[in-house]
Design brief:
This protein has 187 residues and is an alpha/beta fold. Helix content is 39%, strand content 12%.
């Protein structure tokens, strides 16, 4: 397999100004269906298999469920879940405060924002998923992935920077809602 094609989930409802990681926020069903249509059209144009892997969170899994209604294979993989922001998750960024965010940025790779997951742990999770997807012949039927901005940024970081320790200023910007990104095979 040459690589994975990953779409960021559609924009969820009620997330403006909030830190959203594993908080399971809803997406307007029309937006989920619209992204599923785009994925299906892309697969048709590129001769891709009709299989999709998603995060267990609704904002990704709902897209997979639409595709499953149309005959696609849909698999959920916990490794695709968004970064765990601990007690920050779901909170307004203003309530978290600039000082807490600055502390995270000073030790970007190893700090546990809100007591949650380190960036190093996210990178390991992302690397394991990508390696498994490229090493598993059965995974070839699941070229399409619907995931989250943090996970996609981690995949892009590994593709661009390899094993370098990430720093806040060089971390890839979040891709837009519904955006498509290709992440190549490791190595």
């Amino acid at each position: 397999m040459a690589g994975l094609t990953i779409w960021r989930h559609p924009k969820p409802l009620g997330v403006a100004g909030r830190c959203i990681g594993r908080t399971d926020v809803p997406v307007d069903r029309r937006k989920s269906k619209r992204l599923a249509h785009r994925i299906r059209a892309w697969a048709r144009r590129h001769g891709a298999p009709h299989g999709v892997i998603t995060s267990p969170l609704r904002r990704g899994a709902d897209v997979g469920r639409w595709l499953a209604r149309w005959g696609w294979r849909h698999r959920v993989d916990m490794r695709l879940i968004e970064v765990d922001f601990g007690c920050w998750d779901g909170q307004a960024w203003d309530a978290i405060g600039a000082a807490a965010v600055d502390t995270w940025c000073r030790d970007f790779a190893q700090h546990r924002p809100g007591g949650g997951e380190t960036l190093v742990a996210l990178l390991a999770r992302c690397a394991a998923f990508i390696a498994d997807a490229h090493g598993d012949r059965a995974a070839e039927s699941f070229v399409c992935v619907v995931g989250h901005a943090g996970w996609i940024s981690a995949g892009l970081w590994m593709q661009q920077a390899g094993r370098a320790t990430p720093e806040a200023l060089s971390w890839p910007a979040a891709v837009g809602y519904g955006a498509r990104v290709a992440i190549g095979a490791p190595g």
